[in-house]
Amino acid sequence: MFSQLKQFWVALAIGGAIVWGTGPAQAGDVIKERHTLMEEIGQQLGKLVKVLKNEAPFNGQEIAAAAQMIKDNLDKAEKLFPKGSLSDKSRAKPEIWTDNATFMKAFDTAKKAAAKIVEIGKAEDEMEFPEAMNSVFQSCKGCHEKFRFPKKDN
Ligand code: HEC
Fold first, then answer.
1. Is the CB of 48 under 6 A from ligand 1?
2. Which pick of 3, 51, 139, 140 has the fewest CB atoms within 10 Å?
3. Nearest Cα to Cα of residue 13 among 70, 95, 85
């Protein structure tokens, strides 16, 4: 019962993040939307980091839910980089489109890393958690280093 409720809550939280449909979106909208998705990814990752640092208990269900959200958001975010969607508010690099195959592969790597955490959570496999988290960090970092500009001072 509790887990069903939680699933519902998670589904709601994810569903709520989608604010627009299939029509041609304005560049500003996709930038804002992917930014929001990435921020949520960051929040979920923050929960997992707390567990990693022993600041929160290892709760398999919660870990699986957080990792699933990361994976789902990555799934959504990868569709939100239409060609040339750059702006002064965005940190996206033009290499996203000049080297799109690598960019998409980086999404794949990150999704697989997140999926592994989901498995670990479900299996309550605390031993495997740190190393799998390391893969997640590497996957975020790998893409950011190549495809995201450093933070602008403004
Ligand atoms: C395949 C590439 C890719 C992967 C994988 C990726 N990101 Fe990102 N991320 C980006 C890009 C590109 C931006 C900038 C988008 C923009 O500004 O338009 C971004 C932005 C962000 C932001 C917003 C930060 C800011 O100040 O604007 C956060 C937070 C973030 N990512 C967290 C993560 C985390 C955590 C992971 C790993 C679980 C991750 N990302 C995986 C490409 C990626």
1. no
2. 3
3. 70
CATH number for the domain harbouring residue 111: 1.20.120.10
Could you give the number of structural domains in the chain? Answer: 1
Is 6 a member of any domain?
no
Q: Is 103 in the pocket of ligand 1 (CB under 6 A)?
A: yes
**Is there a domain that residue 66 lies in?**
yes
**pLDDT reported for residue 1:** 43
The response to whether residue 113 sits with its C-beta less than 6 Å from ligand 1 reads no
Is residue 14 a part of any domain in this protein?
no
The reply to whether ligand 1 has any atom less than 6 angstroms from the CB of 136 is yes
36 within 8 A of 17, measured Cβ to Cβ: yes
CB 71 within 8 A of CB 129: no
- Supply the pTM of this predicted model: 0.84
